[in-house]
């Protein structure tokens, strides 16, 4: 049945290459140490490219490049959003947008939390199938961890749309997804590395934080490392593998160890998800590090409201490469509607953006086009 306003409110509140050569936590960098100049002298070409790319990505006037046509949405459909874990604010942001969009379409959306474990995700997927849905969204996990359930959905003809489920946007044959919604991971990785090169003047000691259990995240961190190595003045000090569901307990320990090992040589960090910096802040504060000083931290995804608050307040995060999370929630519903209507996916890939202390303003999410809701509703005939 269609969501009531009360149910909607409760749901919204609930959501409120291999350049690293196998390095893991504790590995030393293989680049030359940073020079003292900090003026780009260590890598003039990479530094110039980085400055130009950063300036372009910080722009806030972004024209709509998403879909303008598509099938009318039938009413009364039931869809399920399976979240990897609702403690991941990126997943929660997309879920929030999907709840809003499903309500606008006149659909019933069930939100199931996989609790961040393989067993939990498999159970959530089994539950989703038991609801006999018209479509399923995979929110932020590798579909292969629930391959039997995915194959059952495929066999039944239930369309499955991913968000950050595989390494690239668009349809996927193996695993079989109608489409995968994401920015281009290579673009996100590259601009986060370029921000460090530009911000540091080409002389940085960098820690990369990843979750190697998620292929999408692992690939992103590999691309970040490759882009950082384009500047010989940047040294990768360590690659810290911290599973996202364990971030709140493990990140503070890793941070304390990093401070002890590298001291002031640690000037910048880049993480595959902003949430690590919420967990890092207490350890950095305890070590006497100022919120607006080094190590300067950038999140290579996902740009949740708390990350925006940290950037705005200069509290242990200086920049993020945000996904348009709410808009992507609307996009996953639009993609399911296209699948239900037997039409191809939209092919829409949002452009990358940088949110920094210079342009964050009062924003809580990256909203490249404030009219996207009306655009989608016009497509659906609402």
TrEMBL record:
Keyword set includes Signal: yes
Locations listed in the record: Cell envelope
InterPro entries assigned to the protein according to its UniProt record, in alphabetical order: Peripla_BP_I (IPR028082), SBP_2_dom (IPR025997)
Secretion signal span: 1-18
Gene3D superfamilies, alphabetized: 3.40.50.2300
Keyword tags: Signal
Annotated ranges, domain Periplasmic binding protein: 79-340
SUPFAM superfamilies on file: Periplasmic binding protein-like I
PROSITE patterns (alphabetical): PROKAR_LIPOPROTEIN
The family this protein is said to belong to: Belongs to the bacterial solute-binding protein 2 family.
Name of the protein in its database record: Sugar ABC transporter substrate-binding protein
Organism, scientific name: Phytohabitans aurantiacus
């Amino acid at each position: 049945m269609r969501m009531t306003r009360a149910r909607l409110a409760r749901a919204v509140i609930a959501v409120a290459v291999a350049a690293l050569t196998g390095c893991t936590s504790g590995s030393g960098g293989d680049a030359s140490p940073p020079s003292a100049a900090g003026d780009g002298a260590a890598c003039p070409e990479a530094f110039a490219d980085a400055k130009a790319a950063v300036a372009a990505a910080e722009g806030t006037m972004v024209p709509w490049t998403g879909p303008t046509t598509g099938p009318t949405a039938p009413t009364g459909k039931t869809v399920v959003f399976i979240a990897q874990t609702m403690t991941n604010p990126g997943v929660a942001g997309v879920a929030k947008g999907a709840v809003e969009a499903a309500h606008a379409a006149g659909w019933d959306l069930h939100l199931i939390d996989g609790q961040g474990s393989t067993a939990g995700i498999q159970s959530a997927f089994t539950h989703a199938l038991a609801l006999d849905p018209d479509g399923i969204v995979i929110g932020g996990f590798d579909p292969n961890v629930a391959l039997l359930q995915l194959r059952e959905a495929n066999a039944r003809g239930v369309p499955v749309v991913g968000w950050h489920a595989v390494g690239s946007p668009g349809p996927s044959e193996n695993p079989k997804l109608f489409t995968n919604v994401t920015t281009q991971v290579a673009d996100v990785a590259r601009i986060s590395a370029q921000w460090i090169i530009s911000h540091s003047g080409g002389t940085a000691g960098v820690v990369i934080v990843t979750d190697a259990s998620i292929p999408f995240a692992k690939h992103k961190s590999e691309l970040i490392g490759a882009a950082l190595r384009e500047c010989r003045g940047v040294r990768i000090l360590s690659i810290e593998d911290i599973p996202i569901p364990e971030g709140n307990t493990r990140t503070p320990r890793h941070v304390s160890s990093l401070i002890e090992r590298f001291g002031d040589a640690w000037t910048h960090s880049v993480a595959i998800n902003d949430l690590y910096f919420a967990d890092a802040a207490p350890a950095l504060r305890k070590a006497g590090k100022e919120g607006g000083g080094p190590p300067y931290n950038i999140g290579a995804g996902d740009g949740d409201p708390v990350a925006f608050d940290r950037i705005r307040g200069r509290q242990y995060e200086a920049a993020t490469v945000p996904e348009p999370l709410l808009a992507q929630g609307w996009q996953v519903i639009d993609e399911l509607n296209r699948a239900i209507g037997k039409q191809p996916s939209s092919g829409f890939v949002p452009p990358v953006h940088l949110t920094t202390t210079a342009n964050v303003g009062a924003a809580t999410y990256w909203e490249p086009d404030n009219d996207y809701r009306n655009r989608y509703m016009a497509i659906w005939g609402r």
